[in-house]
Amino acid sequence: MRRLALLIAAPLLVAAAFVGTTVVAVADSQTTCTSPPNCKTVTVDSAGKLTSGSTSGNINFAGLTANTTYNLVDVMESLATDHQFVGGSYTLNFAGSCTAGTATGGTYTVNGTAPITSTYPTSPPSTTGTLPTITADGSGNFNCNYTVSYPTIDGTNDSTCGQHLCSVRNDLFVMSGNTVVTQTASFSVEPDGAPPTSVPEAPLPILIPAGILLAIGAGIVVWRRRLFASS
To answer: How far apart (Å, rounded) are the C-alpha atoms in residues 87 and 110?
Structure first.
């Protein structure tokens, strides 16, 4: 009888353990700074490619004028035989709370038809719409996490990456009116990565059925032992 009880309980215990196990996805990662203290990181997938559709990271500037607000132009640049800005619609948003300074998001269009010759680091591309802004803190510093959505990089807005090997980087211009105050860019990485992902934790709704199955299995063992003792 005891052996029978264990045989009945074992599949339930195994099932419980299986249900309580989650498959952990390979996490995205962020690049490091290319020219600190000014810095812009981007997120790449497990293959080291820029996450498609949008990418996130951290923006850091030092040496700005204290308590001063600037416009930002954030633009993708393809790097191959030619360097080209990627035209189209961009939306740059910031975390609710910045480490240093403050920021507001914006949605704008990088104007022009491919090829849009890159003029980094001298000047940004032409834009229309609402540019995002940053305000330096009392020490002239700015640091904040961000997410930017950007156009698909293909033959409609870039003549370099379409059928040629290329890499892309994320350029960032800090503007006071029409004057470039400073700029920075991310590391260059391969384009066309997977959409952004995160590492999932074991969700409570999955763990609850696992606990129920474990309890049922244990209950069957106890019930069988009592039945065997009374027989």
So the answer is: 5
